[in-house]
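Reminder to self: keep the SMILES exactly as supplied, no canonicalising. Ligand is magnesium ion.
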Amino acid sequence: MEGIFYKIFLKSVAEKEKQLAILIDPDKFNNSEIDTFLKKIPKETTHLFVGGSTVANGETEETVKALKAETKLPIFLFPGNHSQISDLADALLFLTLLSGRNAEYLIGQQIKSISKLKNSPLEIISTGYILIDGGKNSSVSKVTNTEPLPQENIEIIVHTALAGQFVGAKLIYLEAGSGAKFPVKQEIICEVKKAINIPLIVGGGIKTDNQKQAAYNSGADMVVMGTAFENAP
Ligand SMILES: CC(C)=CCC/C(C)=C/CC/C(C)=C/CC/C(C)=C/COP(=O)(O)OP(=O)(O)O
Ligand SMILES: O=P(O)(O)OC[C@@H](O)CO
Ligand SMILES: [Mg+2]
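Structure tokens returned for the bound complex:
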């Protein structure tokens, strides 16, 4: 059964309303500066994502709690591992790293999360997560000990996304890695969007309005921006 946050997402896609998620990394976020942070993010922000490749135990919950007190924006967990789960959030992107061949990130972490999730009110959204080369060795690549897919091989990226849909993913997330030198290129976004019929999220290395718009124009339904708002004054 589809939960409310996924239904809202599908409705936005049907109405061609683009979504913008701002990523908050609990490790780098100062909970006492939430006010300033919420003022500096774009007005069109639709979601807050909370997660990181490596986050100290308990920090996710602290950050979600602090955010919930200050904003009504939906909070989606975007976890690097099973310890980054808090029932205080609204939804959980239940990621599986389809670009890699590390069983731990294809199904291991997911199994480890079940004792926490089996009685959780969180909306769980199955997400096919595809790491693509962004010109820099990414934290995701280091932590998972997997290689990103090269941007040149569009066919394998499209096939990976469609395989994700066929095994039941409700979202596909094309990731160039946080702080990528270059984002996922437009042609890849176009081809993936044409192939799948579930919503498409694109993130990694998107810093400017132009880059964001380019991703939307190519078919991204949601853009994720993190680094751009991490160090901004
Ligand atoms: C479903 C559950 C319980 C866990 C999923 C576990 C999986 C498959 C994770 C995918 C691989 C992974 C490590 C994803 C992390 C995604 C993320 C939150 C990236 C944010 O950026 P950082 O990688 O923290 O970048 P910085 O190094 O710049 O902080
Ligand atoms: O930090 P940036 O480069 O915006 O990347 C956001 C997100 O897609 C990383 O997982
Ligand atoms: Mg991080």
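Points to follow up:
The chain has a mean pLDDT of 97.
The domain at 4-230 is CATH 3.20.20.390 (TIM Barrel).
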